[in-house]
Amino acid sequence: MRLKYAFLLSIFCVIILSCTDKKPVSQSQGASVPQEDSVPVKKVDSVKVAKKQPLTYKILVPSPYRYCNPDTMISKNWVELYKVGKEYYVGKARYSIEIIPDECGSGTAPQLSGKRNTILFVNQLPIRMGKIQVANIEMSDSSYLFPGTAYSFTFLGKRYKLEAKAHGEDVFQNYVLLLNGERVFREVEAGDAYFALLFAGDLDGDSKLDLVVSVPLDNESLRVFLFLSTCAPPGLQIGKAAEIVDDFSC
């Protein structure tokens, strides 16, 4: 007990000494305590904290182009989403661009091709390169989201339901995609082309669902959307981060 008491006193004395520049004060002797001269405080200019700028995404897909020129957009700094077997990866973009005859005239058109089974080229992605997490659902350009159909799947323990709804037969009116009842996208009028799910998984590194969807207006047009959870408006699951649109109708 005495040792414990002595230990507590030693701590207290250390605190007192450190607070008084290690100079003990004797109140019984009435010694005055000299006050240190005030030290002028150096004024520090306020540091302006720059706002975190939102990421700006640009995308391309392997395809011939008529109105877009992929050669002026893509570079070796881009990355790509590609598939090997049943696994999906993000890596440095590997591609080629060749000039091919335009099927609807005497002109030519650039065609962007991937060196691998490429799904999407992106100017940047906030995720480590390598194998990425995907939902347990079949995904390809033939995974059509027919009006009236629904896909149920899970991703990292959470259940999802992706539904497609529309009115009409030859021409679809109000073609809508719903994710767990929340509207992801709506097209007022679309031709006889069907939407397709190209990818469902994590592309921005936050362990939440992201989507890549083909949403053409008709069979002679190209339109692909990238939806990311980090681009979602407040209270929603995902938001559109980028799109690529082109037309090759005759």
Overview of the structural elements:
- By secondary structure, this protein is mainly beta.
- The protein is 7% helix and 40% strand.
- It has one domain.
- The chain has one helix at 2-19, and strands spanning 59-60, 63-64, 79-84, 87-92, 95-101, 108-114, 118-122, 130-131, 144-145, 150-155, 158-167, 172-179, 182-190, 195-201, 210-214, 221-228, 239-247.
- It has a five-stranded antiparallel beta sheet, with no helix packed on it. The protein has a five-stranded antiparallel beta sheet with strand order 9-14-15-16-17, with no helix packed on it.
- It starts with a helix and ends with a strand.
Which characteristics define this entry?
single chain, five-stranded antiparallel beta sheet, 40% strand, disordered N terminus
Low-confidence stretches: 1-52
| Tertiary shape | globular
Oligomer: single chain
H/I helix tally:
1
Find the structural class using helix and strand composition.
Answer: mainly beta
Trace the largest sheet across and list its strands: 1-7-3-4-8
Measured between the Cα atoms of the first and last residue, the distance is 97 Å
The amount of beta strand, in percent, is 35-45%
From the alpha carbons, calculate the radius of gyration and give it in angstroms.
31 Å
Fraction of residues in H or I helices: under 10%
Average pLDDT across residues?
A: 80
Structural domains: how many: 1
By DSSP, the count of extended strands is 17
Largest sheet composition = 5 strands, antiparallel
Order of helices and strands: HEEEEEEEEEEEEEEEEE
